[in-house]
Amino acid sequence: MSCGEPHETDCSEVLDHLYEFLDREMPEGDCTKFEVHFEECSPCLEKYGLEQAVKKLVKRCCGQDEVPTDLRSKVMGRIDLIRAGEAVPEQDITVAGTDQAATARE
Prior knowledge:
Elements: H1 11-16, H2 18-22, H3 28-40, H4 42-62, H5 69-83, H6 98-105
Helix pairs in contact: 3-4
Domain Putative zinc-finger: 11-44
Protein name: Anti-sigma factor RsrA
Pfam family, one: zf-HC2
């Protein structure tokens, strides 16, 4: 995705590292660079806002549940495949025990 305008930081770089920015898992200098990009680029700012809202919703709904490490690894693996442009199989990525935890909450 690109807005078609030239920026010091390319849109693809911002979108590839959006979750690192959201989670504050990048150096402060990079965070500043991304903030400047969002001021210049409304499509990236819109994507940032959407992902931030999803993150807040997930935290509100599931924040008290511990995420199994295996599930995090599988999700991150799928994200890497998508970023690389590879085909991602349509399958459930849940880990044994996650469904049980969800059922117990209901």
